[in-house]
From TrEMBL:
<dbReference type="InterPro" id="IPR006037">
    <property type="entry name" value="RCK_C"/>
</dbReference>
<dbReference type="InterPro" id="IPR036291">
    <property type="entry name" value="NAD(P)-bd_dom_sf"/>
</dbReference>
<dbReference type="InterPro" id="IPR050721">
    <property type="entry name" value="Trk_Ktr_HKT_K-transport"/>
</dbReference>
<feature type="domain" description="RCK N-terminal">
    <location>
        <begin position="1"/>
        <end position="117"/>
    </location>
</feature>
<feature type="domain" description="RCK C-terminal">
    <location>
        <begin position="134"/>
        <end position="228"/>
    </location>
</feature>
<protein>
    <submittedName>
        <fullName>Potassium transporter</fullName>
    </submittedName>
</protein>
<dbReference type="Pfam" id="PF02254">
    <property type="entry name" value="TrkA_N"/>
</dbReference>
<dbReference type="InterPro" id="IPR036721">
    <property type="entry name" value="RCK_C_sf"/>
</dbReference>
<dbReference type="InterPro" id="IPR003148">
    <property type="entry name" value="RCK_N"/>
</dbReference>
Length: 228
């Protein structure tokens, strides 16, 4: 997959490197040559450019990108203008960075419904979500083990946990399932998530549910891939 990371500060740099390590094509852009020089050997392409310049942005392969991530943090104005340009250029998936409540409000007004709060979400967690679209969130417990939220794989919909037999097949533990419901608030659709309690053998895996899994990442990835 191809990703464009705009802003190569600490967060953007870590994200661009991790996505490259996961095997993706990554174009990183920043207006500071020092940041570009740091990454030119570590990611697919690193370019110096002003992301608030419409002509410069138009030169990027935005239509081919699976997502553009605005990782600019220290300049809220530049971050918002960059996001607005991406919206204007009809980029199919835009992920904005939020460092204040006001910025979040403006992004929501632009209909940007995917955003990151680096204080709460690490670059590694975002890279994991981008690497596998079925992963909703992740948390690294130790060097070996992680907790992953993922959509219920299609082949297990309608089965109980006993029938799916995920622990024996993949060496992962299902901690709980999460159900999502949509609710209209102030003219906008809000998604509410609620855990169903500790999972047990007769828990039924329904379409749209989120599985909360504990195990080694390689085993969880195998489950997701073979469960398609």
């Amino acid at each position: 997959m191809k990703y464009i990371v705009l802003g190569l500060g600490n967060f953007g740099r870590a994200l661009a490197i991790r996505l490259t390590e996961l095997g993706h094509e990554v174009i990183g852009a920043d207006n500071r040559m020092s940041k570009v020089e740091e990454l030119k050997e570590k990611i697919t392409h690193a370019v110096r450019m002003d992301s608030t310049d419409a002509d410069a942005m138009s030169a990027l392969p935005l239509k081919d990108a699976d997502a553009a991530i605005v990782a600019i943090g220290e300049d809220e104005g530049a971050s918002l203008l960059t996001t607005a340009l991406l919206k204007q250029l009809r980029v199919k998936r835009i992920i904005g960075r939020v460092v204040s409540d006001l910025q979040k409000t403006v992004l929501e007004a632009m209909d940007i419904d995917e955003y990151i709060m680096p204080e709460e979400e690490s670059a590694a967690r975002l890279a994991m979500r981008l690497d596998n679209l079925d992963i909703v969130d992740s948390f690294k417990v130790s060097e070996r083990y992680s907790i992953i939220e993922t959509k219920v794989p299609a082949k297990y919909i309608g089965l109980t946990l006993k029938e799916a037999n995920l622990t024996n097949k993949y060496k992962v533990i299902v901690l709980t399932t999460i159900k999502s419901t949509e609710q209209l608030e102030d003219g906008k659709t809000k998604v509410n998530r609620e855990a169903t309690g500790i999972a047990h053998s007769d828990t039924v895996l329904a379409e749209g549910d989120i599985l909360v899994l504990f195990g080694e990442l390689k085993d969880i990835t195998r489950l997701i891939q073979k469960g398609e």
